[in-house]
Structure formats: C-alpha cells, structure tokens
Amino acid sequence: MDLQSTTVKLLDLPFYTEGPCVDEGGNLFFTTLSGGQLLRMRPGEAPLRWAEAGCPNGQVITSGGTHLVCDSAERAIVQFDRAGSRTGELLHEQCAGYAVQCPNDLVEDRYGNVFFTDSVRESGRVFKIGKEGSQQCIADGLDYPNGLALSPDHALLYVAESYQNRIWAISLNEGPVPPAFVWATLPGHRSGRPIDNLPDGLATDAQGRVWVAHYGMQAIQVFSAEATLLASLDTALPLTSNLCFVSDQPHRKSVLITGGYAEPGPGAVLLMTVDM
C-alpha cells in the first residue's frame, strides 16, 4: 500500500517523550519520563507544564475526563483531573494479587474497564481493572508487554510484546480466561539485535488497521485488520515510542508521535499527516 506522509516537528525537549493523547478540546498531552512532567499544548503554541509525577509513561483520558497515567517510579496508575490536579491512584504496587513492577501503557474500553501492561522481561503481565473495581490478570509470561490498543469493536485487545518483536491479540469476549494468540510478527532490524526492534506504542484507526510505533526501527508500521503489513513510515525519530490519532479520517490521518534520540533524552514530539 502506497502511503504518503509528511512530518512536522512540534517540539524538541531535553527528555524522551511518551504518553501521547488528545482531549475533546484538541489539546495535545504527552509525558517526559525522566523529566517527571506531563505537558499540554496546542499546535503552534508553547507547551505548558500541566502536572508532575515520578516517571510518567503511558496515559489515557477516560470517558469521564480523568487522566490515568502509568508511573513506573511509583509502581502506580495515578489519576489527575481535567485541571492537572492529582486526585488519587487507580492502583499502587499490587493488582489481582500480583506485585506490579513497571506499569507502562493503558487503555479504557467502551464499558469503562481499564487494561494496562506491567513491562517485565520474560514474566510481564497484562491486567484488567473493571469499572466496578475488580482486578484480573488476563495474560502473563510475556517478554516485556508494552503498548496496548483496542479493535474498533472493542472485541480484541492488541498487545506489543517488545522483546519478541510481535503483537498479541487477546479476545475480550466473556470467559474466565481470555484466549490470546500471536497476531503479527514485525519486520526485524538488519542488525539482529532485539534492542533495534521493540514494538512499543500501538493505535488502531477507524478502519481497524493497527499502527505500531517501532522503537529502534525509526518507524511507524501500519498493519491491516487482517495482520498484513501495509506500510513502514519513516519518522526520522530514532527511538519512536508511541502514537495517537489527532484526526482519523478515511483518507487522511493526523498522528501525534513521541520518542527521542536517546534515553533519557533528548526527546521530541512530531505530527505526521498520512494520506491513505
């Protein structure tokens, strides 16, 4: 599939960036892990320090307007209100009877359930926190589970397993143990080193395509809903960490991209426009 893309750098920052999301007012949000900041901006304007946390990573804005932020330093998912004031924690150090080591990324489904990854080598897990407060481990034994995304019908949860360079799909249909399967294996870097691959953040568009921020590959890779690789889009950002849609039209996508040139920095925030 021939996709045409143009990329504009919105910001250079001293710290590697993560956690892109957009609110209903068009405000752009992202995190600086080692910088301990959550920033808010509008295109063409300077960013504002919106909130602070220990080591903020992935974030999601819930249907109620609450920001949920994975904080790996606190081993917690922290809650912020619309004004950036910290209002509590969704969890701290424990979930479903397991110790949580490194909460990394999270999504909310249409029912108000929250799913998050605990990014650990070889024994990583994916958890579900029900709207009513229930807790469940829905996948374990993963080699650094990372980014998450939901299919448009919210029937599948996609999970990037970074150190195996692949994407899992977990069925969210009713059942005590959700079935899971390897959905796609990503192209490998010519170096052969795992660190040069590492699928990171994920997003799905309205057509069901899965977009992968491929850390180390300097790329956004686009897969069809049937797991066929459609395109690899060069970001010019060596460590491409995550992405979200600012605009999701059938023939044109605007994608907010985070990452950097090294860790803990410097970092950058990009806006990519893709003509489908």
Please tell me about this protein's structure.
- The chain is mainly beta and 276 residues long.
- The chain has a single domain, classed as Neuraminidase (6 Propeller).
- Helices cover 0% and strands 57% of the residues.
- It is built from no helices and 26 strands.
- It has a four-stranded antiparallel beta sheet with strand order 1-26-25-24, with no helix packed on it. A four-stranded antiparallel beta sheet has the order 2-3-4-5, with no helix packed on it.
- A hairpin with a 5-residue loop joins strand 2 (17-22) and strand 3.
- The radius of gyration is 17 Å and the shape is globular.
List the SSEs and their pairings:
Blueprint: E1 4-13, E2 17-22, E3 28-32, E4 37-41, E5 48-52, E6 56-61, E7 67-71, E8 76-80, E9 86-92, E10 94-95, E11 98-99, E12 103-108, E13 114-118, E14 124-129, E15 135-142, E16 145-150, E17 156-161, E18 166-171, E19 180-185, E20 199-204, E21 210-214, E22 219-223, E23 229-234, E24 239-248, E25 252-260, E26 267-275
Antiparallel strand pairs: 1-26, 2-3, 3-4, 4-5, 6-7, 7-8, 8-9, 10-11, 12-13, 13-14, 14-15, 16-17, 17-18, 18-19, 20-21, 21-22, 22-23, 24-25, 25-26
